[in-house]
Amino acid sequence: MSPSLAELSADPHPHLAAMRAAGPAAWVEALDGWMVVGHAAALAVMRDADTFTVDDPRFTTSRVIGPSMLSTDGPEHARLRQPFVAPFSPRASRAYFSEFVRGESARLVSDLRPRGEAELRTELAGPLAASSMRLALGLERIPVAELLGWYRAIVQAVADVTAGQPLPELGLTAYQALGSAVSETLASASGETFLGGVLSGAQALDQAEMLSNTAVLLFGGIETTEGMIATLAHHVLTEPGVLDELRENPDLLDAAIEESLRLEPAAAVVDRYATRDVEIGDAQIRKGDLVVVSLAGANRDPAVFPDPDRFDLHRADLRRQLAFAQGPHVCVGLHLARFETRCALENLLGLPGLEREAERSTEPAGLVFRKPDTVRVRWGA
Ligand code: HEM
């Protein structure tokens, strides 16, 4: 039987495995669309933007923030995305963000240290993700709490529009406030700043395009990175022996990050719309159908990852995990997200006797964005 949204949100993995056993794609009544659960099929869909596009009026984010790289395909997508690629390259993003991210993750953990306990999603992961995006947008003068307030109002507006309600005033005001703050930054941006680097990109964008794409950075960079760090902390502290192994062998830190992403990608699905009739395995997809790529499902395909439900620091092919998607929309911020996560983990490992308070913590959950709501930990003095 096709799973409900509640089942896909709580623990999708047994349902995804059952679907996968029947074929790489299945109709899911509750989504009113197809779900792609096989690794090869997921890759093929994400790489073929002519057949599986994001450019569809049902994509509600664009109704709130206007067209952006997230909601376009083909040459228009390439034009909107291109100025962000070089500033987010491994070398450029390291050069621009590394000092801040290193310092901020160390500061957050050392501020918590004397307390001997913390909730890691809201007290480490969220603040690190939000302050890194604040730096990217050149909004250091805006308190993180205010930026998060705008962000939440815009996310709520997207949720309301998705549910068929009118665009709420609060979402609109928040988007305008973000817009004027970013415009101010842009007016004085020098080539040395991150946004200045974007602006000087070969095919600079106009003001409205710049704004919708910077809003995408907020969408792309806060919730997901917060989830990525919180989920990693959850895995490191719940999977037997992993914490000790990482302390003994820090060379395995990157493997832990990738394996955590594989098992619980922070964005569990990406949506596409079929532009023509097409088959995936036995699934007969019709033009206009919603095609939901389950990154969580693809990441546990036993054809690529043997014994896929097991957390294994020594997998040979971890870089084949698809948490950052693939193809033309592959995550622009993936190097920065990995770097933030690595810094957060390094600092956490420095807390002696670190352990998770199981009875006060929760498991990863969520239909689209998955993360543990609460990762309560304590450590010794
Ligand atoms: C520094 C943090 C991050 C930034 C600035 C960022 C930014 C972006 C942007 C701008 C896009 C749109 C690219 C396009 O459509 O061409 C994107 C796509 C994506 N990002 Fe990220 N991201 C970040 C972190 C993450 C994290 C932590 C995850 C998950 C673990 C993630 C998963 C994705 C996925 C799955 C897509 C593809 C969406 C699609 O294909 O529809 N991102 N990201």
Q: Strands, helices and their partners?
A:
Layout: H1 5-10, H2 13-22, E1 25-28, E2 33-36, H3 39-47, E3 52-53, H4 61-65, H5 74-85, H6 90-112, E4 117-119, H7 120-136, H8 144-162, H9 169-188, H10 194-199, H11 207-221, H12 223-238, H13 242-248, H14 253-263, E5 269-274, E6 278-280, E7 283-285, E8 290-294, H15 295-298, H16 334-349, E9 355-356, E10 364-365, E11 371-372, E12 376-378
Parallel strand pairs: 2-8
Antiparallel strand pairs: 1-2, 3-5, 4-12, 5-8, 6-7, 9-12, 10-11
The protein binds protoporphyrin IX containing FE.
Protoporphyrin IX containing FE (HEM) is lined by residues 54, 69-70, 81, 216-217, 220-221, 224-225, 228, 261, 265-267, 270, 323-325, 329, 331-333, 336-337.
- N/C terminus separation: 51 Å
Could you say which small molecules are bound to this protein? protoporphyrin IX containing FE
Q: Outline the low-pLDDT stretches.
A: none
Tally of DSSP β-strands: 12
Instruction: Give the amount of beta strand, in percent.
Output: 5-15%
- Main sheet strand line-up: 1-2-8-5-3
User: Whole-number radius of gyration?
Assistant: 20 Å
Q: Could you say which overall geometry the principal axes of the C-alpha atoms support? A: globular
The CATH homologous superfamily = Cytochrome P450
Please state the average pLDDT score: 92
Structural class by SSE content: alpha+beta
